[in-house]
Amino acid sequence: MSTSTRDMAQTLFAWRQQRFGSPLFVPVAMTLVVASLVGSDWPGPLQIALRLPAAWLAVLAFRLWDDLEDRERDAQSHPERVLTQVTSARPFALLVTFILLLTAPLVFAGGGSVVVFLATIAGLMVFYRTYGTGRPGSDFVVLFKYPLIVLALGASWQPMSLAAAGVVLLGVSIDEAAQRLHSSAATRAGLLAVTFGLLCSFKIVEHFHAS
Question: What is the span of the domain harbouring residue 53?
Fold first, then answer.
């Protein structure tokens, strides 16, 4: 499969349908934003609004990056995945870099910590190069990027913030296990709704405790 501009666009469209087409990814981004509000003062409306695209772009970039790193393994276990068929991963790696560079200023403008965001990227890079995917537990280790996104968006290390990040980690870990058990989309949506509701309750309790 050629990686010309046209073919790359077609590949990305096919990848989005296959690997990022689930309507759950917007609620996932919303859940990360809600988690980032726990344990910190309310940011301004504009900052909250900027956190949603920042979270969504971060999830998009990390999802694409994961699939690029998994190409060799997927060629054996999931040969139907489109990224296993491209002749060069370089254009897609550059796209991941571009999306991450676009996300960083949104994190900053949303009142988050660019340092934590960049540290998350650096940590993933080191993990992929030293440990790699396909080894025992690797699929669960990379899930730490989600609570780190929360901490990057919220720029808070208060106990409640860390607890919210822990809830996110627990939620995505259960979701990963559910995928391995071939659970239905409805089941996964229910798990996400429970995680979202729990985080909202954290913020409500925090609000009344402060008042």
Answer: 5-210
